[in-house]
Design a protein that fits this description.
By secondary structure, this protein is an alpha/beta fold. It contains 15 helices and 13 strands. The chain has a 7-stranded parallel sheet with strand order 3-2-1-4-5-6-7, with helices on both faces. A 6-stranded parallel sheet has the order 10-9-8-11-12-13, with helices on both faces.
Length: 372
């Protein structure tokens, strides 16, 4: 088997958004698609194994003694503890978007997005300085670069001056077991006080670019007389407090529910029961919930921004950020649910964990080949 060392020290469970699922599903899909061609060793922060027990079937997990919550500590661990253990690997995969100052080669670098170049105002000054300093150096030093979508591939090539043949797309994938043990609609309605006829789900961390305010505008505007509730299901981001205050100020507490981050069963159950997944994000490198909803038979309404039109394709509504247009899209999603469910299922079939694993395997082989 070809030994691969994967740096997941940046991947703090529940705190890094969709990039966590993206890498975990890829590695699991690698084993599903190819069996034992690759001997994957993943180096992870303390507590990661407990959060992702199924990954132990696809990789050997090596936990640090620390949670790696400090960036300085994580970089130090990458350049010492990880580097000393990864030097015998045929390829070293850094999944967090940047290479540490010291890394064995050849290396594959996953770049999830370049949001910091598009919306720098959404980043702290410290994080912005770090990314501006490390990203150009990282993409130059990496043997090859993997990205989740053609949109990100184009932006890496155009904004960072990377040769086109150095960047490959490794699609996001969802497990075939998705939704097999989802929580029932009755239980979710009782637990979270969801009494409306139509529930709209938005599973996203409350970061500014996720644009939760748009859905508040939708409920307070074109949908104000409709029997609809919007459910915000995700961790607390930088816009969380402002959003919570806005919901109280505008008297939207009964129409907009903030229920926090959900486990897999509750998340899948929420999507299954929803009239639509609503995804008004201004910036996505991929947008995994879109494919998850399609796989579960839920219609999708998404913003016409960044990677979302590419991912949704013709299998859902891709709509400009106009409240009236979204109200019309919702009417159609409800009226023609079976139509959109069928299109979504066909689209989701292109984004399986096994397909993602095959893409990753190809990236590993090309990385090794480029170094030989």
């Amino acid at each position: 088997m070809t030994r691969v060392a994967v740096n997941l020290l940046w991947c703090l469970p529940g705190r890094v958004g969709g990039s966590e699922q993206y890498l975990v599903r890829q590695i699991a899909g690698l084993r599903d698609a190819l069996g034992r061609e690759f001997d994957v060793h993943a180096y992870v922060p303390r507590g990661f194994s407990l959060a992702h027990p199924r990954l132990a079937d696809a990789a050997t997990l090596h936990e640090t003694r620390s949670s790696q919550s400090s960036r300085l500590l994580r970089v130090a661990t990458e350049t010492t503890w990880f580097a000393s253990r990864a030097h015998r690997a045929a390829v070293v995969h850094h999944g967090g978007g940047t290479l540490p100052p010291r890394s064995p080669q050849p290396s594959l670098l996953t770049v999830h997005d370049l949001q910091y170049l598009v919306y720098p105002e959404y980043f702290s000054a410290t994080k912005l300085r770090y990314l501006n300093a490390r990203m150009p150096v990282s993409v130059r030093r990496a043997t090859r670069i993997a990205v989740p979508s053609e949109y990100v591939r184009r932006t890496v090539v155009e904004r960072l001056g990377v040769p086109e043949d150095k960047v490959c797309v490794v699609r996001h994938g969802v497990e075939s077991s998705l939704g097999a043990q989802h929580t029932s609609e009755r239980e979710l309605r009782e637990r979270f006080g969801l009494g409306a006829q139509h529930v709209l789900a938005y599973p996203a961390v409350t970061h500014p670019h996720k644009n939760h305010d748009f859905l508040c505008d939708l409920v307070a505007g074109p949908l104000r007389d409709r029997d609809v509730q919007v459910v915000f299901a995700g961790g607390q981001g930088r816009a969380h407090d402002d959003l919570a205050r806005r919901i109280v100020r505008d008297g939207l507490g009964d129409r907009v529910k903030m229920i926090g981050r959900l486990g897999e069963r509750d998340r899948d159950g929420l999507l299954v029961m929803s009239a639509a997944l609503v995804f008004p994000s201004r910036y996505e490198g991929f947008g995994a919930p879109v494919i998850e909803a399609m796989a579960l038979g839920t219609p999708v309404i998404a913003a016409d921004q960044t990677a979302l039109p590419e991912v949704v394709g013709a299998a859902g509504h891709v709509v400009a950020l106009n409240a009236e247009a979204w109200a019309s899209a919702l009417d159609d999603a409800i009226a023609r649910r079976a139509h959109w469910a069928a299109l979504g299922a066909a689209r989701a079939a292109q984004f399986t964990a096994a397909a993602s694993g095959r893409d990753l395997a190809d990236a590993y082989r090309r990385t090794i080949g480029a170094a030989s």
